[in-house]
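**Sequence, structure tokens**
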Amino acid sequence: MKDILLYLSFLLSFYNTCYADAPTCSDSDLRAFAEDQKAELQIKNEGYGKFSPYSTEDAEKYTVTLEAGGQSYPVHALKFPASITPSKGTIFVLEGGPAEITGRGGPFPKDYDVVRFDYIGLGQNANLSATAEMMSLEGQAQAAKKIITAMKLKNYVIYGHSFGTPVATITASIIGRDPKMKDYQPRSVILEGTVGTRAIPPNETRESNRAWDLLTPAEQQIFIQKYETTIKFLTPRLKRNLDMILEMSLAENPRKAADALKHFQVPVWATSPEKMKAMFPWADKPLTPDEVNTGISRMYRAAGCQVLPVIDPPEKLFNGLFSNVLDTTVCRCRSINRDFDSAKFQIKSPVLYIQGDMDGQATIENARYHYDHQTTKNKSMLVVKDGGHASTFDEMANCTPLIYAAAFAGNWSNLPETKDWSRGCGPETNTPLKVVPTSK
């Protein structure tokens, strides 16, 4: 459960997205966004849009300047050095979520430098005057390109996860097309939990039902009883938080989600209204403007809504026990009316896809679309059986030295056909691990 909560913090901003669309903004939408803007001004403080405290975590600070609409905007980035000198190369990370960076993080081998930056509109790069185009996928990719140039990165790999896969795709594509960037081409691009097109929706229903089917009928009934007991006295706000945590258990894989359901316990504070109110005196109050991360919602109305398709009504999860808790308001009034389609952004560098076949947020069908529409022949897809949205953070974490060695060589044949990806790369397993280079 600790891993689930850590991953939840990494992806919390996912819940500021929406799955509803409309050709125009309603009056209520415009009023809500005006309130967001007021709240954003109210919560602005001295550290907003500057280097965060964790920037001192042995990180080198870089600032580049973007020009847009006759104005200059600073964009901050951090380089976390390798444990050896010289390093084996640099891993340029484009975050999932999108979430604010919290340090070196991730399953990246320590003998590589790691470069990360908050997307424009978030964290260190929050900027009240940033335009929608600056916060779009293409705007984020231009920022990434500028950082790569400023750092003079030449021996590097681009890694994109989830929301970061469209940004990584566009970044690699524009670098590949720019003759001035011939010395700055990435060795390869690694995409995990890949979004290929806005036209293919998530499918958390399939993933959650797979987790549900891993429980015995008796275990299913026990969970239903505990869940119904827990929500009996919960306010809508607390129930939403509970459902969100259960849904985010799917971020790893169905097996771990099933395990979370098996070990679910009724909290003591949920056994009576009095205990609940004593524990959470704020639980029956509506969200106030200063509790809303409006920087993320502004960014999501730009970039997020280029990726997320219409899903209305929300998906039903865990055999219909509850609906997913994604916000269904923001993308009705999106600020960039341009859908992401990976076919429009060809990558010249070698490409590796890492994909769980039970990923509900970025489905294997979406990854296949990306794979099938890239014309490069130097591409491979590693499919993780029963894998979820972030296999290299979980069951494949001990495979990353092999993966990055192959990525810096730009040659996927260096990946051994040794173990089942779902069982990692440890010596204790002995089932074949299959690299799938061209199958659809």
Observations:
- The chain is about 35% helix and 10% strand.
- Strands lie at 60-68, 71-80, 90-94, 113-116, 156-161, 188-192, 316-317, 322-323, 351-356, 379-384.
- The longest helix spans residues 27-43.
- The two ends are 35 Å apart (CA to CA).
